[in-house]
Predict the structure.
Amino acid sequence: MTVMFLKRWLLGDPLKSAQAGHERLSKTLALAIFSSNAISSVAYATEEILLVLVLAGTAAVAWSIPISFAILFLIVVLTISYRQIVHEYPEGGGAYIVARNNLGELPALIAAAALMIDYVLTVAVSVAAGIAALTSAVPSLFAYRVALGLVASLFIIVMNLRGVRESGKFFAVPTYFSIGALGVMVGIGSFQALFGQGVSVSPDQQTAVEELTLFLILRSFAAGCSAVTGMEVISNGVKAFRRPESQNASTTMIYMSLILAALFMGISFLAYHYGVMPKTDETVVSQLARFIFGTGPLYYALQIGTMLLLILAANSAFAGFPHLASILARDGYMPRQMGTFGDRLVFSNGIVILGFLACFLLILFRGDTHALIPLYAVGVFISFTFSQAGMVRRWLTGKGPHWRKKLIVNGVGAVTTGIATIIIASTKFTHGAWIVFLLILVLVWMFRSIRSHYKAVSEQIALTRDHRPPIPRRNIVIIPISGVDQAVIRAVDYARTRAGEIRAVLVDVDPESTARIQTQWAQWGCGVQLTVVPCPYRSVLRSLLDHVEELLQKNQDHWVTVVIPEILPARWWQNILHNQRALRLKAALLFKDRIILTDVPFHLKR
Amino acid sequence: MTVMFLKRWLLGDPLKSAQAGHERLSKTLALAIFSSNAISSVAYATEEILLVLVLAGTAAVAWSIPISFAILFLIVVLTISYRQIVHEYPEGGGAYIVARNNLGELPALIAAAALMIDYVLTVAVSVAAGIAALTSAVPSLFAYRVALGLVASLFIIVMNLRGVRESGKFFAVPTYFSIGALGVMVGIGSFQALFGQGVSVSPDQQTAVEELTLFLILRSFAAGCSAVTGMEVISNGVKAFRRPESQNASTTMIYMSLILAALFMGISFLAYHYGVMPKTDETVVSQLARFIFGTGPLYYALQIGTMLLLILAANSAFAGFPHLASILARDGYMPRQMGTFGDRLVFSNGIVILGFLACFLLILFRGDTHALIPLYAVGVFISFTFSQAGMVRRWLTGKGPHWRKKLIVNGVGAVTTGIATIIIASTKFTHGAWIVFLLILVLVWMFRSIRSHYKAVSEQIALTRDHRPPIPRRNIVIIPISGVDQAVIRAVDYARTRAGEIRAVLVDVDPESTARIQTQWAQWGCGVQLTVVPCPYRSVLRSLLDHVEELLQKNQDHWVTVVIPEILPARWWQNILHNQRALRLKAALLFKDRIILTDVPFHLKR
């Protein structure tokens, strides 16, 4: 009862299915929920670019500007090509669905696996970066960053289990607050920079440890590609928008891209202008904010805003992951319970699994954003590429109005994201991307195994012929007992309500108590036969199993119903003091054919 | 099947009860099994004495000799007084039994709790010290001491699960080998010391960090008291001896004490003579052996011997703990399954629990003997004191032949161990002994809770009146279905073999599939009524529970039998893909009165 109460208090009362329609999101709420993932990347993307470039010394940092422009190009291409997907798939056009519709099963499963991995990484990276924003402002918390990350994750999990609309409301205010704060910083900073009021600090000169090769520049670009992760989230969630879904989603996408592009380019430009270098214990954005605002109230407001934005960004993965899992479950590639709505109209199982995996990563990588980045973005770019390629195929085969124009848009998208994928995969491969490829393989294998299992099952249980499969005609009922008490009597009386042969079975562990039980049985047994079976190995379980096996052998055309008198304690911990034998007996009997297990409960009051 | 095979291979074939008599031990085997605990303490007791004294500087070490004599006095007193217990309690006279017979329930439970804690510590301390003997000889293994300790523990656990006699055989050879090796070392060392051939090394002068107070000397004595732990083991296991049990046990006890006293006094004397000081990475015995033997084959033989003796010493706890747990279970203070013999005539559950707890301590204390010592010996001295006090009470009330002489013997024992207990408890209290006191309280509370629960249960299920308790007279059978397939048809056909009203219940999740299932039912349902229940909250489980609740309300005088068609996969991992709903349904229904759960299995072939 207490557990149920806690659940209600945390998650709210169950919602009726009929309430589902009302759970749709306005554009303002949808932008907060679906865009925080993409926009929040600005908090770490520039830093990740610099972190690679600085390996080649301070001078190499100038490359951050052309790299940022390359990423801006990616943002533009993705926005235009994803808008086409949003219009074409109003039911929600995740990479999995687009690939399955247009490319076939294997590409679809690869895209799905890649996306699932990236959802988990999104949560871990966002939470880690959010906590980094906090510890940049309050360095004394640095030591507790893993614990803080776990608390933040749990908070998001609970919010999501409450249901989508309430989460939206809850998350909208801080999201807009932090976008605003970042905007003010970029605005003031740019103004100061342009009109020469800002003091350009000369950074510590970093010695080069690597040469400035093309590979290093590409690696820096790959690290920066984390900026565009999350741009696909809207296309997965078109159905969550108010009508007209596609139109609203498409518009929201443009807002999102504009905000993302402005903030990302602004931060990259300012970081270069002020000569900010990555530090272990302070983020680039935090350093920038100190230059622009000074360490005052505005600075702290920005850090808190950034933290909230990042932590809430993880939230968008909690919309995407369970949704994808439910689609996969519906198609038979995931266990069926992933496709079941919980009390609050959300896919509770998916939320819990995503939360658990993300917490695991946070602990494993000690809450360090930089350590997680090499794994990140690989998956998302694979799914980008499959989406765009799927759309190209769609226009080529389906044609339809303006198909040439649309083909060119998605064609450019496919080629651009394809090249980016190759760059990311090759530059990050040895730094951890190989783990992602391995995981994709494992997941795809898992999806196919699950599907083929469900298929085998449905073949086996299908009613194909018109005649019923033959089943046993008669029934022997046995009641294993180890004494005579009210629970046993109750089981006997229940068994007597039914037709068929009934006998109690007693294992002869100790002749003395066997004799005593036989006497009691004469009084209470109601004429039901009592069979005493020998117990050469002191194992009651083994003796009972042998006896049942013998019954099955002797009576080939019978069911054997085992009626188990089960004493149910009043409190859960008391279970350890009861039913261990019943449990083992049931586990052993479950795997025999023609055995039917029947529990007759006897409820204790105290 | 593989698991069963592995179990057989590791543990041997099951033994018949009739073979139990043959499992009795000869004195030679019993000495190996029951004495290794006490004797092996010589490997660390002297070191623990020195470790405390050296805090007061090198000069204070001279106090180790009088302290050793005090401990020798304890050994003598315990030997004499425990022989009386062995004779008085041929069935096995552990502290629990003696206290229960003579002092009452509470002292008995305190003694039992204290003993159980000390059994666990015995395993942890012995294994840690055994590994220390190994890493003293091979310092490169020092880093792996926890892992090595765990491997050793697992080895002992498996040996014990095989059964008592085979363990005895297996353990006798190394035990005697190591006693011999230690004896040779003490012999040669003493000879050299007496006849001036040994080179007395002048130890590094240690600076005093504490003053040489009476408290420090008493703390050193308390640490040294670990030498006598395990002396009670024989009295617990009298029943395992060959006839005449008491006589054989008593004789074995004398041999044990003689060996223990000789080795302990020898090592303490030699350590002082050679000026050996405790080191972090080498035991005192190892240093001593290097002085006496040089680092040659004899030295290595001794270290290996000591290691084996210590690791096997843990074994005696594996005889004592499960035995005590089974006695407690028989008296209703522990869960009943602790009192059940396993396949190999040993109390398997007790062995596994002891092994698990000891491994937990090894990991928690990083396999460090010194860290464990402050917890050790408290419990065993509490049980010593209760045993002796119980015997005193026995002679006072029961009298009998020579009762005055016997009273004096146990009186001296009670006073001596009582004083030692107070010294140990007070000097070690802040160093960790408080944990032991707390645990004793918790265990005693647990014992009493379990007992009072079992008592409440037996009152509730007792058949006290001559008339049968009234039970429901009629039966409604419902079969929850979510489709029509062979598993469902099988359940329906089974249900039809019995009398009573039968109906299938379908939860209306989706009107389309409901209509389809109704059509199929018309063909396959054999005239069984199909009830469609609404599903406002999308929770199939909740709808079913509501329906069942309604049935129970409407039919107060009926059983409601829920027949569940259960699809059983061919492989265990496939369970995650099935029956989640059935499982949740069963868990929810188990706690309702008048509900009978019946599983009709449908076994998949692939």
Remarks:
- Residues 297-330 of chain B form the longest helix (34 residues).
- Chain B touches chain A through 74 residues (CB under 8 Å).
- Chain B is about 65% helix and 5% strand.
- Residues 301 and 399 of chain B are 51 Å apart (CA to CA).
